[in-house]
Write a structure and sequence with these properties.
Length: 164
């Protein structure tokens, strides 16, 4: 099986998020990543329905992304993150931001990538998803900062590809 998913460069992520949120978003390489348990995890699948990539965000980043999209005050996002869960409004808009980010995980425009599932703190994370974040060769760590909102760490990883 040959898959076209890639891990995007920080500048690509910053440009997409800045355009999506209409707020300045700074993205830089981070020396460490997110621990999968306790984070918000988005899993992406290819056009064949096979999981190919996953992104884990600290809950502070997930809340900030969701809140910034619909101008929910930063304090509301911060309080939600501190409580360890996201209210429906922030969750739904965060889900939409993750959905938009699927386009970052394509090497070309011919293969469709889509958001498959989002796990929140407290959900059981399947072993194959957790393994993505342990694979040092196929992951990247970034720091995301949304102007006026809380910042934090994000880890992106690619599922090990199996021959068909």
């Amino acid at each position: 099986m040959s898959d076209k998913s890639i891990l995007p460069e920080p500048t690509q992520i910053a440009r997409l998020l800045t355009n999506t949120l209409a707020k300045t978003v700074d993205v830089s390489v981070a020396p460490r990543g997110v621990r999968a348990p306790g984070s918000v995890i988005a899993v992406y699948k290819n056009h064949e329905g096979v999981p190919v990539a996953a992104v884990a965000c600290e809950i502070s980043v997930a809340a900030s992304l969701g809140a910034a999209l619909v101008l929910i005050p930063a304090n509301t996002a911060k309080e939600a993150a501190a409580g360890g869960s996201l209210p429906d409004t922030i969750y739904e808009t965060m889900y939409e931001v993750f959905n938009i980010c699927a386009q970052l995980l394509r090497a070309d425009k011919t293969h469709r990538m889509s958001l498959d599932r989002v796990y929140v703190p407290g959900d059981d994370i399947p072993e194959d998803v957790a393994a993505v974040f342990k694979d040092k060769e196929h992951r990247a760590h970034i720091h995301v900062s949304v102007d006026g909102y809380e910042s934090g760490l994000v880890t992106m990883g690619v599922f090990a590809l199996q021959s068909a």
